[in-house]
Amino acid sequence: MAEAAAPAGYDLVIRNGRVIDGTGAPARLADVAVANGRIAALGDLARARAAREIDARGRIVAPGFIDAHTHDDGALLATPEMTAKVSQGVTTVIAGNCGVSLGPLDLAGRGLDGPPPPLDLLGETGLFRFPDFAGYLDTLDDAPAAVNAAFLVGHSTLRLGAMERLDRAADEGEIAAMRAALDAALAAGALGLSSGLFYDPAKAAPTEEVIALAARLAGSGAIYATHMRDEADDVIAALEETFAVGRAAGVPVVISHHKVQGVENFGRTRETLPLIERAARAQTVGLDVYPYIAASTVLTAGSAARAVRTVITWSRARPEFAGRDLDDVAAALGCSREEACDRLQPAGAVYFAMDEDDVRRVLSYPRAMIGSDGLPFDERPHPRLWGTFPRVLGHYAREVGLFSLEEAVRRMTGLPAATFGLSGRGVIAPGAAADLVLFDAETVIDRASFEEPTRAAAGIELVLVNGTPVWRDGAATGARPGRVLRRGAEGVA
Ligand code: ZN
Predict the structure, then answer these.
(1) Whole-angstrom distance, CA of residue 413 vs CA of residue 86
(2) Are 226 and 240 in contact (CB under 8 A)?
């Protein structure tokens, strides 16, 4: 005998939460139902039945955060539980930034015994074993991480694969080889191209070389993201170069971790942001930012010279100096700061080189996405690796009042999803992926500091990736429901 139609049976209903949907719309009371890894219904679901129910009274229910700028390429394979990210409510990471991606590159096949800086930020030598980008994505399909991941192809990685020497412009043949490798990666589902023109492996690349590659992205929905040639005295010229690449290649550009560095440049976001806004009216321009006055990357004497203070994050030559101030290291070694930088190589550092007002100005800019730029293999990482998202929510939205909670969430969800073409992610709507975070707006805050850089945030109570809990009651669940998000595939525009 047929039963009368009953309310749909869901896998999970989250009841009574204040839903912030990722579009910037005001929070509203609503129940959220999940079935088969997707959001099945939204609204008053008092009569709905579900296998599991969660009472979210007094809590925010938001789309899982999209970390718009990461170097998680190797971490997804080496530490797939991704605790630094899921503990913040991050459910998707964009990797392959700053010109460096794991693939397509076979280090051993290139006769290199280790990744040259800054590729070494992505992890140990053994991780660089993917001459073909599709093979890297397939490997992640077979051994998924806790979070979803989408990937840019690094210009420096392409250069290493195609050129014998990196201290000059690529010639026609090398550009053709890089284009072929880029085309293959795009066909495999890469979101676009990244560059790191600031760094040694790409410094000698002229604008024309970048345009020749970026032009391959035109019309495909792929984007060009750049760690610009300069973020200090010559930041304006670097911005103009970035816009020129976007115009000449006909592609959207994303300015990575926008900032201005060096005491003499403090306040210059008053110049850069209007320039970005003007460009954005004529071409597609976005940017990402992390909420700290300190930067972090490989250790160089040049970067240390620009910083008010430099702290070592790791050193292959002298690991005992991780966490120490460069001035103390120089004193201990009885040498100059420059000499100390040499003796610690290869190494990484945190550089206190920004003005708080500039950081706030960039965070407040409506086109700014939130990206951690965290370095997951650093011995003593910059706290942005563990703290970025709760810091924006708890410190900059709640405590400082830079913007509303809804705006903070939009910069972490709907905006990056639209920028990177991750359709069906970054919003709470029926049919969207059930990437969700439950947090307490009153208590959410970063706890990672420069002194204790790997402390998990407070206030993030439950995190779901594709409907499966990855963070609950202050601990990673160990589940690995993450997916590789390929451009042009289901779930990606
Ligand atoms: Zn960078």
Answers:
(1) 15
(2) no
- Say what the pLDDT of residue 7 is: 53
d(C-alpha 334, C-alpha 227), whole Å: 34
Full-model pTM: 0.96
Average pLDDT of the segment spanning 120-130: 93
Query: Residue 480, Cβ neighbours under 10 Å: how many?
Result: 18
Residue 261 φ/ψ region, left for φ over 0, alpha for ψ in the -120 to 50 degree band, beta for the rest: beta
Enter the tokens of residue 241.
């170069």
CA of 323 to the centre of ligand 1 (A): 21
What 3-state DSSP class applies to 294?
A: strand
- What are the φ/ψ torsions at residue 201 (nearest 5 degrees)? -65, -15
CA–centroid distance for 180 within its chain: 26
- Residue type (1 letter), 404: S
Helices within 120-190 (DSSP H only)? 133-142, 155-162, 172-188
Tokens of 49: 């039945």
Ligand 1 centroid – CA 58 distance (Å): 38
Residues with Cβ–ion distance below 5 A, ligand 1? 98, 227
Determine the Cα–Cα distance for residues 384 and 7; give it in Å rounded to an integer.
Answer: 44
